[in-house]
Amino acid sequence: MYLKEFEIRWSDVDANRHLANSAYVNFMSHVRMAFLMDIGFDQRTLAHYALGPVVFHEHIHYFKEVFPGRPVKVSLEIMGMSQDGTFFEFHHNFYNHKGENVAHCEMMGAWMDLKTRKLTALTDDFLQKFNALEKGSEFKVLTKEDTRKFAKRPQNIEVDQ
Question: What are 50-93's pLDDT values in tens digits?
């Protein structure tokens, strides 16, 4: 399990004086990018391959409030990946200073070719790196159908011209 600690800043707190929803999202994004950098997917490498991670959804479940004054730890576990590496699922857990699990998130995403703006598989060397990493206990091989499990489709509106 990958783990990173954060100080709760004043800008991370909302009107209720606890950790804001946007802070959870920002911390998870930071953890994912730190994790990717640690395994060799730094900005220079991603730019060289014109590759970028995209988020399909993040489902956050909150268990307990988090307040300023104590750090929070955020984990990342690889819970799923397609055989070609196009799709991935990460789970994040938030822990307070006592080690209590205060929130959980299930995140699914994919890799995008930044030139074509289309989803793409990982290169063989990147795929080998991911395949060698520790996986979560409930890891599964993802299919395109897994990315559609919530059956959400865009609903356009009529726009006056």
Answer: 999 999 999 999 999 999 999 999 999 999 999 999 999 999 99
Rounded CA separation 8/96 (Å): 11
Give every CB contact of residue 90 below 8 A, 6+ residues apart in sequence.
32, 76, 77, 78, 79, 107, 108, 109
Domain boundaries, the chain: 2-142
Instruction: Give the list of residues 6+ apart from residue 39 with CB closer than 8 angstroms, or none.
Output: 129, 130, 133
Q: Is the pTM of this model over 0.85?
A: yes
In the numeric block, which tokens belong to residue 53?
Answer: 């991670």
Three-class SS state of 62: strand
Token pair listed for 132: 């060698």
For the 2-142 domain, the top CATH level (class) is alpha beta
Q: For 10-22, how does the pLDDT look when each residue is reduced to its tens digit (9 = 90+)?
A: 999 999 999 999 9
Torsion angle, CA of 75/79/80/81, rounded to 10 degrees?
40
